[in-house]
TrEMBL record:
Residues 11-63 form the Response regulatory domain. GO terms for biological process: phosphorelay signal transduction system. The modification 4-aspartylphosphate is found at residue 59. It comes from the Bacteria. InterPro entries: Bact_response_regulator, CheY-like_superfamily, Sig_transdc_resp-reg_receiver. This is Response regulator receiver domain-containing protein. Keywords: Phosphoprotein. It comes from Desulfopila aestuarii DSM 18488.
Amino acid sequence: MTVTDLPKKARLLVVDDEAGARESLEAILEDDYLVVCAEDGYKALNAIQKEEFDLVLLDVSMP
């Protein structure tokens, strides 16, 4: 098996205004996924414009 045969990890964007929630989700998910975090909607939209994500985990009750 070569490096190119290995499956790519899915890219996740975690969006939450609470640092503890972001850090907890990242710690849980980082072994199986490539995790990018954003602290607000503006940073999340900026990240989405720059790169593709397979899934976005969004805190619904952000200010």
